[in-house]
């Protein structure tokens, strides 16, 4: 009897192992066939582009070209444009990307045919805290969430945020006094990073902070650690074969992405800092729900429904995710944009003097400061020209085709990712004469609506673009109304970092002298 039972158990185990083996074999065959099928799509569409292999696509090409060009991703697309023109296809692992650079095609994708391109590129490898944020939503969920968030950035709401932003920029301007007294060189990129964190701490996290004055500030410590240790192949080897998000690295096997995200979040200091930030943010939101402050104007109050009675967990999670996304977008991109603009103005003293002439006599602390600053024409030109030359995001204006369609004579299947190479458009001499020159006055004349895309375009553009513009202009106005900035010797040539979609200066060292 016992022997018979053992035989039955052994038979069942053997049968189960056989089923598991066949299942694994079927999964492997599925992924193999899928990759080979996807690689037929570019040929079917008659798209030019670099030769690729079914599993790794053009990852090796991209890696070699970036190594050759100082780790700059935008150089890859400059070279491919030279070889294949303004429309071509390439592969990242199993996924087909189609580049569209002609402005009429870009307008088709972002505006005219928006219903066929409502979704962004899938981001499987995304921080768990961002999965419910607007940037990662699709279809009707995106439309619903966008309609809830957009009212937070109306002119009236932005005007109400002027006071806290003005207070923080005043702290920055005061801190520059110490450098003016001793004629000391310093990296203003770091100062701008502390400023943007200080602003976010107040307007998004409801957290009193001293990021600009206290190097040991707890919010600054956790935020800095989170950004320094954001997942990358060097810090987590499995990511080298799994990352799908261009923000971090290129993908090969997106199926492993959730495992790698979990691994990083649980084992790294950056993951623990992320948990601290999320815990602090959730506590602030729960406090606001329990004790509403109708007169308070910050991102939490703007995103929470007016009636917080019986608010559900889904709504709280969405507010948490979008406030956290605001931290990511507002810290890195705004501080780098301010740094690039400062470098350009310090390098071009005549332009800096012209900006000062416009700012001289403007009351930056009055109740009408927002309206005054946002209407200054030359400051507006500096803002737009700085972001034209150095868009903080070079390769994130992308959309996923949600229905078969045709753009520029190219037939696109559902699921194809289309991309707009912002750097190439912003430096195209047929669109912008003398494209490498810093000429704020060029924005006195109208231009094609798709020729300037630092915040994307169409209905799915950056929802916080107007806040970023307000913070940029208030900061530049405050700094350059009070100081003349000059480049330090080691910053006369700019060392640009662009290992992924983010563009940043390595540092911007300057000296300051008082204007007043």
TrEMBL record:
MF-aspect GO terms: heme binding; iron ion binding; monooxygenase activity; oxidoreductase activity, acting on paired donors, with incorporation or reduction of molecular oxygen
Pfam families: p450 (PF00067)
Cofactors that this protein relies on: heme
Sites where the protein binds heme: 462
Alphabetized Gene3D superfamilies for the sequence: Cytochrome P450
Domain of life the protein comes from: Eukaryota
Keywords attached to this entry: Heme, Iron, Metal-binding, Monooxygenase, Oxidoreductase
Similarity section: Belongs to the cytochrome P450 family.
Name of protein: Cytochrome P450
Organism expressing this protein natively: Pristionchus pacificus
């Amino acid at each position: 009897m016992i022997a018979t039972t053992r035989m039955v158990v052994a038979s069942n185990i053997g049968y189960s192992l056989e089923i598991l083996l066949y299942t694994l074999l079927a999964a492997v065959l599925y992924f193999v066939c899928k990759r080979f099928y996807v690689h037929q799509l570019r040929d079917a569409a008659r798209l030019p582009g670099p030769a690729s292999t079914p599993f790794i696509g053009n990852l090796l090409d991209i890696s070699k070209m970036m190594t050759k060009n100082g780790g700059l991703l935008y150089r890859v697309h400059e070279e491919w444009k030279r070889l294949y023109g303004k429309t071509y296809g390439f592969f990242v692992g199993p996924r087909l990307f189609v580049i569209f650079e002609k402005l009429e095609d870009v307008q088709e994708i972002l505006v005219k045919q928006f219903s066929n391109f409502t979704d962004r590129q899938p981001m499987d490898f995304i921080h768990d805290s961002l999965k419910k944020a607007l940037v990662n939503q699709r279809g009707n969920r995106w439309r619903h969430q966008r309609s809830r968030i957009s009212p937070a950035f109306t002119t009236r709401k932005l005007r109400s945020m002027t006071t806290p932003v003005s207070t923080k920029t005043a702290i920055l301007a005061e801190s520059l006094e110490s450098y003016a007294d001793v004629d000391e060189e310093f990296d203003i990129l770091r100062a701008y990073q502390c400023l943007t964190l200080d602003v976010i701490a107040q307007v998004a996290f409801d957290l009193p902070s001293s990021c600009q004055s206290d190097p040991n500030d707890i919010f600054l410590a956790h935020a800095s650690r989170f950004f320094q240790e954001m997942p990358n192949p060097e810090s987590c080897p499995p990511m080298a074969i799994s990352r799908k998000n261009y923000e971090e690295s290129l993908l090969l096997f997106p199926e492993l992405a959730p495992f790698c995200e979990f691994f990083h979040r649980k084992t790294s200091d950056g993951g623990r800092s992320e948990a601290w930030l999320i815990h602090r943010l959730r506590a602030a939101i729960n406090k606001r729900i329990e004790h509403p402050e109708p007169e308070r104007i910050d991102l939490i109050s703007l995103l929470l429904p007016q009636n917080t009675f019986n608010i559900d967990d889904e709504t709280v999670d969405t507010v948490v995710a979008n406030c956290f996304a605001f931290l990511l977008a507002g810290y890195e991109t705004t501080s780098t944009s301010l740094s690039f603009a400062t470098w350009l103005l310090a390098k071009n003293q005549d332009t800096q003097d012209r900006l000062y002439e416009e700012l001289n006599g403007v009351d930056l602390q009055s109740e009408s400061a927002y309206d005054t600053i946002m209407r200054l024409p030359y400051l507006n030109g500096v803002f737009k020209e700085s972001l034209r030359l150095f868009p903080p995001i070079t390769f994130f204006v992308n959309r996923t085709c949600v229905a078969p369609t045709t753009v520029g004579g190219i037939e696109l299947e559902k699921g194809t990712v289309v991309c707009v190479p912002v750097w190439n458009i912003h430096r195209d001499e047929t669109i912008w004469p003398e494209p490498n020159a810093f000429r704020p006055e060029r924005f006195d004349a109208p231009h094609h609506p798709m020729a300037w895309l630092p915040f994307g375009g169409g209905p799915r553009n950056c929802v916080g673009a107007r806040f970023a513009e307000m913070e940029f202009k208030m900061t530049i106005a405050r700094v350059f109304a009070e100081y003349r900035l000059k480049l330090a010797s080691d910053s006369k040539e700019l060392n640009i970092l662009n290992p992924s979609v983010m563009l940043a200066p390595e540092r911007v060292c300057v000296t300051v002298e008082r204007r007043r």
